[in-house]
């Protein structure tokens, strides 16, 4: 019961923040110099018909809040407006591209979780030279922007060695995964470094604690100590990075998809920003923010289950 | 309230661990900064002079680091590119620090509805990753360096303001603040002249960490063609220009700026992390005379929940990317405690060295 109340509270908070975010994304349009209609049509022929269409679509004759509420209502029905560049519904553009991006993000996420956790684990448990090597490697990794990794990987593995295709998405799931391997690695590199560091420091902290000494002194096998007492205890800290990891992945797809010319929503965001296709920018921004918040919500709901020391009461009083 | 009897190093004595790695990185930072400052006098060629006869030329006596696909001298572009590539992040750090301290101080000092409004908007900004906010602003104001710098400053502001707020909340409860209030000093004067110098080392340590992130974000925006104007040399833009060359089998003009970006970010990260750490209790540099931390004596009802301790909607503080010591993503109990109780008691500005205070 307590958990349900906590969950309901968090969902309500997320909805409130999401509402705020949608207001920012909508209101941003009115920061532009000049009136909204000419901004939306910037650089394009402002024929009377086009102006009338824009006015009708954005209800520009209505007061600001009525406009915002209508826009919100359209969003709730899955209507993201019409793209000015592509002259089709934004929702259709998104539906074509979202699966590719999601596949890329999921692949990168898998790489990040597996490699990051393993590196952090090894680094904390082995110590010594292994630890130093991992530290140097992760220091380099967190200093490498994903677009640099993308260009360098492309040069080495696609152009020089020819092991992977250098661009495009391919057909069929296996071919797609084949095409997305290099991009996923480029996307993952920075976060592998980050997650390995977080895992390492969380595990070192757990290794330091008294219950580990007690478990060892009672003769519990070392492997079991590491798995049940050290890793299990650091899992909570590792889990809190989930939201940050997913939001970083989503944002960096913009760079990686552009570098590998993958037709996903990241590349669409880049294209629509440079062509000033604001409805598309709005839609993609909102999707990225919403996905980030949903992941954060899931993390928050999972946290008390993973780490029972985080009691619900303490959390709700601290909010 | 925590009783700590200590000498405060203050701003003047920022002491650091001097490992070889740190010294190498410090040298690298100095070198890049010097190159950026002296670039106009160092460059051998006009960075934009196109010479198609030299397109994709390798290193030679004429062009020490070769030329790009348009025959532009890579060395000249790298040197001049250091200016835009460092100036942008510097602007982000300065602006986000100043604004973040202002917001955090107002929230921590005034409290009440203003605090809740500022905390809520902080959570809202956290939901927008820096790069996304920058792209949103660029799609409105068009390409250029100013719009992304402002957008990134806004995106990084919460990291500074949240820390400042919790530090100010802790400082407020210290007796010296009441003493100044009794003496009739104005709130502004107390904040700026007495609280600010005391919390500055910790806040600056946090905000300079943003430099590396800002450099990567701005380089990424330039890579997308959304950052600096087309003809301005910039490392991120050079990677983009070099990408076609790399696909033709001439990697040099893309690899060089990539190496510069990575080395600069790593060097800045290492140097910043070796600076005054946010959790000084861990280092030997902090000369505690007496440190009683476990003992907490508080009146019920006076303790206010601080936002750093809450774990809910806001994402974890960014993990320090390259510290040699473990840096947890979320404030560990130890870090959180030292964030709430900043190193040592306050001292009057100017008498930092000999000042010893004991707060009961």
Topology:
The complex is a heterodimer of chains A (319) and B (360).
Chain A: H1 2-27, H2 36-40, H3 48-58, H4 64-76, H5 90-126, H6 128-142, H7 146-160, H8 173-207, H9 210-217, H10 222-240, H11 242-259, H12 265-274, H13 278-306, H14 312-318
Helix pairs in contact in A: 1-13, 5-6, 5-8, 5-11, 6-8, 7-8, 7-11, 8-10, 8-11, 9-10, 10-13, 11-12, 11-13, 12-13
Chain B: E1 3-6, H1 20-42, H2 74-110, H3 112-127, H4 130-141, H5 146-172, H6 175-182, H7 187-223, H8 235-247, H9 252-274, E2 288-292, H10 333-340
Antiparallel strand pairs in B: 1-2
Helix pairs in contact in B: 1-2, 1-9, 2-3, 2-5, 2-7, 3-5, 4-5, 4-7, 5-7, 7-8, 7-9, 8-9
* Termini Cα gap of chain B: 8 Å
Mean pLDDT across all amino acids of chain A: 84
Question: Looking at the chains present, what oligomeric state does this protein adopt?
Answer: heterodimer
Largest beta-sheet characterization of chain A? none
Cα gyration radius of chain B (Å):
23 Å
Helix content of chain A: over 70%
CATH third-tier fold name of the domain at 86-234 and 258-277 in chain B: MetI-like fold
**Given the helix and strand composition of chain B, which structural class is it?**
mainly alpha
Describe this structure as you would to a colleague:
The complex is a heterodimer of chains A (319) and B (360). The radius of gyration of chain A is 24 Å and the shape is globular. Chain A is an all-alpha fold and 319 residues long. In chain A, 78% of the residues lie in helices and 0% in strands. In chain A, α7 (146-160) crosses α11 (242-259) and α8 packs across α10 (222-240). Chain B has 360 residues and is mostly helical. Chain B is built from 10 helices and 2 strands. Chains A and B meet through α1, α6, α7, α8 and α11 of A and α3, α4, α7, α8 and α9 of B.
């Amino acid at each position: 019961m307590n958990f349900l109340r906590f969950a309901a509270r968090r969902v309500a908070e997320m909805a409130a923040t999401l509402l705020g975010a949608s207001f920012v994304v909508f209101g941003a349009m009115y920061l532009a110099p000049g009136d909204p209609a000419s901004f939306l049509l910037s650089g394009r022929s402002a024929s009377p018909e086009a102006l009338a269409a824009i006015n009708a679509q954005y209800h520009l004759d209505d007061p600001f809040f009525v406009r915002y509420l209508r826009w919100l209502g359209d969003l709730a029905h899955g209507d993201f407006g019409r793209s000015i560049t592509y002259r089709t519904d934004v929702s259709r553009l998104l539906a074509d591209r979202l699966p590719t991006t999601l596949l890329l993000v999921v692949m990168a996420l898998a790489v990040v979780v597996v490699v990051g956790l393993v590196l952090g684990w090894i680094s904390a448990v082995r110590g010594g030279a292994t630890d130093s090597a991992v530290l140097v490697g992760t220091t380099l990794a967190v200093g490498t922007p994903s677009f640099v990794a993308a260009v360098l990987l492309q040069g080495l593995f696609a152009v020089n060695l020819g092991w992977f295709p250098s661009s495009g998405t391919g057909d069929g799931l296996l071919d797609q995964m084949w095409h997305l391997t290099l991009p996923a690695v480029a996307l993952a590199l920075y976060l592998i470094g980050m997650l390995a560091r977080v895992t390492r420091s969380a595990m070192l902290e757990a290794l330091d604690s008294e219950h580990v000494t007690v478990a060892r002194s009672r003769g519990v096998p070392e492997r079991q100590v590491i798995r049940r007492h050290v890793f299990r205890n650091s899992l909570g800290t590792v889990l809190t990075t989930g939201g940050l990891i997913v939001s970083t992945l989503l944002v960096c797809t913009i760079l990686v998809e552009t570098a590998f010319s993958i037709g996903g929503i990241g590349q669409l965001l880049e294209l629509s920003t440079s062509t000033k296709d604001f409805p598309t920018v709005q839609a993609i921004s909102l999707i990225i923010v919403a996905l980030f918040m949903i992941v954060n919500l899931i993390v928050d709901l999972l946290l008390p289950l993973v780490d029972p020391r985080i009691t619900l009461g303490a959390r709700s009083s601290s909010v | 309230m925590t009783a700590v009897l200590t000498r405060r190093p203050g701003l003047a004595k920022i002491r650091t661990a001097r490992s070889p790695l740190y010294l190498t990185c410090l040298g690298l930072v100095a070198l890049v900064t010097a190159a950026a400052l002296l670039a106009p006098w160092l460059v051998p060629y006009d960075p934009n002079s196109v010479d198609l006869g030299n397109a994709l030329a390798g290193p030679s006596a004429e062009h020490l680091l070769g030329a790009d696909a348009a025959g532009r001298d890579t060395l000249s572009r790298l040197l001049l590119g250091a200016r835009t590539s460092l100036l942008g992040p510097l602007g982000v750090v300065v602006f986000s620090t100043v604004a973040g301290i202002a917001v955090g101080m107002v929230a921590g000092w005034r409290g009440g509805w203003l605090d809740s409004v500022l905390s809520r908007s902080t959570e809202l900004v956290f939901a927008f990753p820096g790069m996304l906010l920058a792209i949103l602003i660029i799609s409105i104001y068009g390409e250029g360096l100013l719009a992304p710098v402002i957008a990134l400053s806004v995106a990084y502001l919460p990291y500074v303001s949240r820390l400042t707020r919790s530090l100010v909340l802790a400082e407020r409860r210290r007796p010296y603040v009441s003493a100044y209030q009794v003496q009739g000093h104005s709130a502004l004067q107390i904040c700026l002249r007495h609280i600010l110098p005391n919390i500055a080392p910790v806040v600056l340590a946090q905000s300079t960490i943003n430099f590396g992130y800002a450099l990567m974000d701005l380089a990424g925006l330039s890579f997308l063609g959304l950052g600096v104007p087309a003809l301005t040399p910039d490392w991120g833009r050079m990677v983009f220009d070099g990408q076609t060359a790399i696909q033709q089998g001439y990697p040099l003009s893309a690899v060089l700026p990539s190496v510069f970006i990575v080395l600069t970010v790593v060097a800045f990260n290492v140097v910043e992390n070796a600076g005054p750490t946010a959790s000084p209790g861990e280092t030997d540099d902090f000369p505690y005379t007496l440190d009683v931390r476990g003992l907490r004596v508080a009146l019920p009802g006076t303790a206010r929940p601080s936002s750093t301790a809450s774990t809910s909607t806001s994402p974890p503080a960014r993990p320090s990317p390259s510290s040699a010591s473990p840096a947890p993503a979320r404030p560990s109990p130890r870090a959180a405690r030292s964030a709430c109780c900043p190193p040592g008691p306050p001292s009057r500005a100017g008498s930092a060295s000999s000042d010893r205070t004991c707060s009961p």
